[in-house]
Amino acid sequence: MTADDDSRHPGEPPREHAFYGRRKGKKLRTAQAAHLAADLPRLAIALDEVGAGPLAALFPQPVRAVRLEIGFGGGEHLVSEAARHPDIGYIGAEAFLNGIAKATARVAERGLGNVRLYGDDVIPLLDRLPPGALERIDLLYPDPWPKRRHWKRRFVQADNIDRFARLLTPGGHFRFATDIEHYAAWTLRQLLADPRFDWTAERADDWRLPWDGWPGTRYEAKALREGRRPGYYEFRRR
């Protein structure tokens, strides 16, 4: 499907279930391909695993809570957080094969037992997860779809906010980072109007400065090089 093609074939899922973007980029490095073959089978989540029991059972080591990162890119933040919090399970969802390969290699090389990966459109996974199953959801530097006719493709939409509200435990958090001012305003407008969420910021530095332990990402580094200032927005589920 091209960026400008809004048509669907019979039997395709509705628009809110569609993945927009490339699934594969440049050729994988030899080591990345080797990790995919050797390590991804034990890290990958199959949909039929989800909902069959407690979400913590997805992980080979005990975890006290589970967090989800949607669109983890190269896995920099996902792996850093998992290494910092070995008692928390992390599910990373990314439809881009090259990102899956990078994250698989990073997880394997650090020997992390609290990470599972989902390599497809995240919507079926969100709909399969049980209510209140997640302590936190991270959406970091998603595609802003800057053209007005493509705004409906942005991930922060009413239907996905409903999914976040269903999946987050009371007191759980949704974290959103972007370097695109319009997307930040778009997200704030929707979340501030939703009675199920509270914006946690009390002062400007709460959204201007990264969260504690923030490792940075390659997307963020590019934004800073090009003069765009990132924002870090956090919302608490009531």
From TrEMBL:
It comes from the Bacteria. Substrate binds at K147, D179, T217, R218, Y219, E220. Its EC number is 2.1.1.33. S-adenosyl-L-methionine binds at E69, E94, D121, D143. It catalyses: guanosine(46) in tRNA + S-adenosyl-L-methionine = N(7)-methylguanosine(46) in tRNA + S-adenosyl-L-homocysteine. Residues 1-24 are annotated as: Disordered. Pfam families: Methyltransf_4. It is an enzyme of class 2 (transferase). GO terms for molecular function: tRNA (guanine(46)-N7)-methyltransferase activity. Residues 1-19 have a biased composition (Basic and acidic residues). Gene3D superfamilies: Vaccinia Virus protein VP39 (3.40.50.150). Keywords: Methyltransferase, S-adenosyl-L-methionine, Transferase, tRNA processing. Transmembrane segments: none annotated. Pathway: tRNA modification; N(7)-methylguanine-tRNA biosynthesis. HAMAP family: tRNA_methyltr_TrmB (MF_01057). Catalyzes the formation of N(7)-methylguanine at position 46 (m7G46) in tRNA. Belongs to the class I-like SAM-binding methyltransferase superfamily. TrmB family. This is tRNA (guanine-N(7)-)-methyltransferase.
